[in-house]
Amino acid sequence: MLIRPTTLLCLTGALLIGGLSAYVDTNPVRQVRLRQTLAADTLPKLSLPEGADPNDPDWKDVDLESKAPVQPLSPADEAKQFLLPPGYQIEPILTEPAIQQPAAISFDANGRMYVLELRTYMLDADSKGELAPTSRISRWEDKNNDGIYETGTTFVDNLIFPRFVLPYGKDCILSMESDADNVYKYTDTNGDGKADKKEFFTNKYGRSGNVEHQQAFMYWGMDNWLYSTVNAFRVRETPNGVIREKTGFNRAQWGVTHDDNGKLWFQGGASGLPSYFQFPIHYGNFDVPNEFAKGFDVPWGAAVKLADMQGGMDEVRQPDGSLKRVTGSAGNDVYRGDRLPAELKGQYFYGEPVARIVRQINPVVNEGLTTLHNVYQEQQSEFLRSTDPLFRPVDMTTAPDGTLYITDMYHGIIQEGQWTQRGTYLRTKIEQYQLDKVVGLGRIWRITYTGKERDKTRPNMYGSPSAALVKHLAHPNGWWRDAAQQVLVQRKDLSVVPQLTALARTSPNHLARTHALWTLEGLGALPAATVQQLLKDPNPKIRIQALRAGETLYKTGDKTLEPALKQAMADTDTDVQIQAMLTAKVLKLPDLETSIKAAMASNTAAGVKLVGEQILTPARPRNMGPFGAPELSAVQKASVERGALIYNELCSQCHGNTGLGTPAGNGRLLAPALAGSLRLQGHPEYAVRVVLHGLEGPIEGKTYAGGMMASMKEQSDEWMADVLSYIRNGLSNDAPLVSAQQVAAIRAKTIDQKGSYQFASLTKLTPFELQPQTLKATASHTSSTRIGGNVSPASAFTYEGWSTGGRQEKGMWYQIELPQDVRVAELHFTASPVRRPGWKPTPGAPPTPPPMIQTYPRTYTVETSTDGQHWQVAKADQKGTDGDNVLLVNSPKTRYLRLSLAENVPSNPDDVPWSMRQLKVFAQQ
């Protein structure tokens, strides 16, 4: 558990308030580590690892002399190593021993600071124990308002490398763990500062593998959707469940933020650069050349002398040993506060922890396209630098007090174990300076400016009436506006709709109008008349917001907006015109091609031309999955398109245009919501049976005004497959399509069904998925490029996937132990092609798709066993296929399943591995 607040006052509080004149650490384990570092003699001279070429650029002129170990400094002494522009100061507000290895912070609407503590990150150079359940999320308060967060609790403990923390109401957060798929809501119900209630929020959210490559930073956008890095979708909670929509690929790793216009900015990782920022991500991807000013990829860190760069000596600036090209970035923030100089508003900040810098970026918009400039490039400097090699800035945050906070992990190693293996250049430098000994520390810093005192007003939004929160929508600090909007949306208090409508229509403050508009959208109370009015507003920023918010109304069926949305494509403002084109694209407005061409003819701005051309001739979607996420085939696309027509002509009347259900008054719906439905995304037999034979009566205790779902068995197998494929692959759902063959098989299986189903009896007839966390997987071969064993046979259940690595050979096996004896109905898995290893495009040649290797099992046998020793053949000579594989097992009760390859696959020209991902086991009652 965390140190008690009274102890913190004696230790951390005294240190901070007293000028940090001493450095105290009460953690016994870490005391040993620090003593080892501080007392260690210098190492003997190192030598080049075996096989290293001294003439290789990575090793050329490398210094292998023995060095004194890097010493951790007290917060007071670290503060002296910072270099800031004139007028800026930096001060610690929370440090170890209270927190350890902080990776991100987030504030709730009462100003309480949640800290994501990744306590297992790189505790040694081999990343051992990285997935131990010892990380936590703590919560901190500054109760005496002196600027120091002295009172803390462990809000959630014993976590496996948590991916994010998002405050989600009073005493409530959302988070998830590494190598997991579910997001959970954690709530403190008794007010003791510790979450005692854990609820499922949404699934299909994660992936496994390298901890630096998994999703992170769940983030509440101004448009009331929740976004994250890595994932090409957004989610949103509705009264009928969590829904999702597909977005473009954000190509980010650690950092999401938004500006005053609500545009999201994503931060890359290994690229060392911002990843996607030109346009809102839900419009898809647009490739924009020259997004970064010349020299943008050159960092100007202070002299740290260590030259501990993963890329080797070729990445080192001599003679100061600093990084000469960005290589890793983490954390980001568009500063929207009010207690730093006005010229910082709207500036983008991000950390480069390898270079030990925080960079300030000036976004310059010209003809609708944004170019990023390093503000201090001409001075060959950065906004914040440090000569302390342990400074590791991993997050930046506009705070409730109007200043800018920096999360500093203060850590020896900042590259994950995959890149610090023995024999590498980086491992040599780690051992030379004993960087692996400096662990378990961490600091949160506040940046202030001379003559601008921080805002000492303590937020109390959870205890404030809704009318008071509306006033905060005009606050000069963007954090206050965001928090007030989020609380209002979660309260669903419609009493403030008139107040919000007036604010959106008439306020002289365009920022207040923007937040009022999106608050109305979040409450489901945005009138079309308000959107129509704001589309004609003199301020182009407001017209842009009206276009975006109007998308919600159009998608829910209000087609009266169509003429105004089309007319906006002829707007005299370039940015408005581009936004109108994006809106028309995402809504698939009629006559889209004609309207886009007319817009391009009326405006020669570079942004209009680029967006128009890429809407009319979209680039082939990039394959972003580690094992590939194949596009739908032409046949599958045609099926989904036919299904969309059927749904909109027939099903939408009861189930709603967006699948959220059609309101029937008194809080009831005509029919169940289909968007985000776990039942609809489960085994397809449930939905096929319903469409074939109908469903009546309560569903999970709820009754619907429509009464029943009528049988449609007179329709063809293809018709049913089309509409169900659209429902399962659209409407916020993400599940495999349904084939006409599957429908035909279920039709034959249920031919004796008389009348409609009741929900309770139907669920007993339908195969159900066994949850992956209840299954134990082993395999004869497993490819792992990870140190620490994150890739395992269990990875087959995730998006990351499992692979044998080497070529398929007869006798290779994959085994699943079930939680108890069950009747296995089916196995589903995806086997997608992978890029041929070592392939590189030919310089100067036209771009061509990379050659792919098919990884599906060519021929395999399925066996069952009750004891794991004696096996019975359930299915012999099964043929795998590229993409989705569905295997009917229909076994008697069994405890073990084993898939074994029945033939060798020759390597010509490459080894052909066996891979599986998204493996699902369905059982039958």
UniProtKB/TrEMBL annotation:
The keyword Disulfide bond does not apply. The keyword Mitochondrion does not apply. One of its GO terms (molecular function) is electron transfer activity. Residues 638-731 form the Cytochrome c domain. It comes from the Bacteria. Gene3D superfamilies: Cytochrome c-like domain (1.10.760.10), Galactose-binding domain-like (2.60.120.260), Leucine-rich Repeat Variant (1.25.10.10), TolB, C-terminal domain (2.120.10.30). Keywords: Heme, Iron, Metal-binding. This is Membrane-bound dehydrogenase domain protein.
